[in-house]
TrEMBL record:
Species of the source: Characodon lateralis
Pfam families in UniProt: EGF, Laminin_G_2
Residue ranges of domain EGF-like in the record: 25-62
UniProtKB keywords: Disulfide bond, EGF-like domain
PROSITE patterns the UniProt entry points to: EGF_3 (PS50026), FIBRINOGEN_C_2 (PS51406), LAM_G_DOMAIN (PS50025)
Keyword Disulfide bond: yes
Statement: the UniProt record of this protein carries the keyword Disulfide bond: yes
Descriptive protein name: Contactin-associated protein-like 4
Span of domain Fibrinogen C-terminal: 61-113
SUPFAM superfamilies: Concanavalin A-like lectins/glucanases (SSF49899), EGF/Laminin (SSF57196), Fibrinogen C-terminal domain-like (SSF56496)
Source species, domain of life: Eukaryota
Amino acid sequence: MNPNSTYHTKCKSEESLLVSRDEHAAFRCSPSHCKHGGRCTQSWSTFHCNCSNSGYRGATCHSSKFERSCEIYKHKGNTSGHFYIDVDGSGPIKPQLVYCNMTVDQTWIVIQHNNTELTTVQASPDTNQHFANFHYQSEEKQLSAIISQSEHCEQELSYHCRRSRLFNTLDGAPFSWWVGGPAPGQIQNYWGGAVPGSRQCMCGLQDNCLDSSFYCNCDADYDLWTDDSGLVTHKEILPVRSLLLGDIHRPGSEAAYRVGPLRCHGDQNFWNAAFFDKETSYLHFPTFHGELNADISFLFKTTSSSGLFLENLGIKDFIRIELSSSTEVVFSFDVGNGPLEVKVKTGLPLNDNRWHRVQAERNVKEASLRVDDFPATIQEAPSDGFIHLQLNSQLFIGETQRFEFFHMPSA
Ligand SMILES: [Ca+2]
Ligand SMILES: [Ca+2]
């Protein structure tokens, strides 16, 4: 017996143990194979996941019902509006409702907070400071994922003033400051349009302040309305979380501030494109990990009538997606029960040099394949068969044919 087959036998016996535990009807929901809070119910022979209100779908509530970014909604032909986005797809971060602004060249994700309007601050003898806290619609994990996956983010930070100073001098303690960045945030002493840490406003950076001995228009302390307005554009200092204004109590002081919504554009995952023009070109990545649940989605365009999109091999198990003919995509895999194929026949040619979308999912109950808006093909897994997908080679993408890809990493 060669060493390989010894190793293989060992794997198989481990898997058999797991299967035999699953075979016990009383334990089909323990542990539960339902993801994202899906409710598990069981019968003698199988289990069922109720995914309603979870935002996820599929036999195990693994795949997100929503796209990862506004960019993808735009790519699918949508116009501006409110959309649910799920920034990490089937990962643990929940879907969130955002506004997608698609009217201009860029596609912006717009995240509101509780106070985006211009807000007037009245001088009052009882209070010598004004403090404002900004609460975002999104949870912290959602905010930080959007900021980190975007190419650019920005937020308006404006101060309108009349006898109300912002910082006033570079050496004294500043009158005002704000807090920004990942929770809980850090104190910032520069204003929108200037450089972090500079204790300046945009006019200081541009050397055109009202009074050239100060670095903000408001710091001149004139008895006329002026403003310091600009954008905070450093991702590591976003979002703006709170604001303290400290020069609002003198007679004649008047001020208003505006902290705009957080706006981001450029989905770095989406524009993760690769182009293959030689028969030998390919990309390779670390081994794909998705033993019980795996989902893969990508966009491709090609003029070739067949080719391999991706492949990852194990000792016996494998996973593969290919264009088998100009009108058929095949998702095949083996988790130990012999090779299984899930095919979508499109009727229309896919090698028309236009973008097409492929979504494949495999979980312990079934495997599914979707191509564009053609009817999905779903194939049930054999009951009480092997369930673990065990891979050990590198993941190869676009091995042999002419493809251009937008590959969206899966979870
Ligand atoms: Ca998610
Ligand atoms: Ca296996």
